Amino acid sequence: MERPFVSRIQERLEATGKSVRKAALDAGLSETALKDLLANPKQFPKLDTMQKLAESLGADPAWLAYGVSGDIVKAQEETAEQEDDSLPVKGEVAAGRWLEADDHVDVPAYDPVPVKPDSRWRREHQYGLVVRGSSLNRIAIDGDILACVDAIAIRYKPAEDDLVVVEMRRNAGLLRQRTAKRYMKQGNHVELWPDSDDPRWQKPIIIPQGPTALESMIEDEDGRIEVSIIALVTWVHRPIQRRRRA
Fold first, then answer.
1. Among the four residues 3, 20, 121, 169, which has the most C-beta atoms within 10 Å?
2. Whole-model pTM over 0.90
3. What is the pLDDT of residues 34-63, one digit of tens each?
4. Which residue segments constitute the domains of the chain, with CATH numbers given?
5. What's the pLDDT tens digit per position in 176-209?
């Protein structure tokens, strides 16, 4: 029988830098018991053991035991209880367009999108961004709305071919650019690709592996640029265009 929780425990051991002995002691277990749990294919822990290990390793108990976030069920219940089936729209994505911080934050007000938020995540972690330009025209055209989930709030780990919202900042954050790109990992670096057939948008943003999966730094002729993955795009909403009347 498979024991996928073993790889999750080992992942947290590596992430926290703890030894098996230290993790066991912090969880109130013996080193022998934890080693046996990791090595013995017939060992399956009790739920309270996983709870103690999760606290020791700084992990969500439900994730450590079952591979899912303990917030999922709660988020689904909270979303279902909400009567307002709409998604707030908080700004735009536009490749190549640098804005001053005040302009970037104080974007024009948009009407909410009349669709239900995704029940997999909390409502307050979801929002829409309006597409500007043609750097995504294979999947989204100018005026479409990307449904996004806040990357930090959901502890997002980028996966190959995910569509992500990237924020770039220069001049100590005084200039900002938001754009949506395909995530591609290549050896020791990451490539963030446009999804477009427009000849202007055929080069990726290439970033080294940063201190976290969501943060990195690059340089160009004008200096350093901070690069952050701020959201996962879950779907594209296309508003119906109204016909103009003479």
1. 121
2. no
3. 998 888 877 777 878 888 898 999 888 878
4. 4-78 (1.10.260.40), 89-237 (2.10.109.10)
5. 899 999 999 888 889 999 999 999 999 999 988 7
